[in-house]
Amino acid sequence: MGKLPCFLCKHFRERAEYENGSLGKCDAYTEGIPYEHYAFMHHGDRPKECNNGIGFEPEEGVNNGR
């Protein structure tokens, strides 16, 4: 299994497991990325906006498969 799209986003900040089920934090989800968001991202249909007007943007130099 490859990295989840969130881990390849330039807005991703911290990978960790939290009590609320989130697996990390990013600029869009400063309190933790909801598990449901990760599950949705596995399908390859990345939303244009994740939260708070912020959406997936690949890190510089990352081939995001699109």
Key descriptive features of the protein:
single chain; 66 residues; two-stranded antiparallel ribbon
What would your notes on this structure say?
- The protein has 66 residues and is mostly loops.
- The chain has one domain.
- The protein has one helix and two strands.
- It starts with 11 loop residues before the first strand and ends in a 25-residue tail after the last helix.
Mean pLDDT: 77
H/I helix tally: 1
The class by helix and strand makeup works out as: little secondary structure
- The rough form would be described as globular
The total of beta strands comes to 2
In spatial order, strands of the major sheet run: 1-2
Radius of gyration: 11 Å
Major beta sheet, specifics? 2 strands, antiparallel
Percent helix range: 10-25%
Strand proportion: 5-15%
Counted up, domains total 1
Uncertain stretches: none
Helix and strand string, N-terminal first?
Answer: EEH
Cα separation of the termini: 18 Å
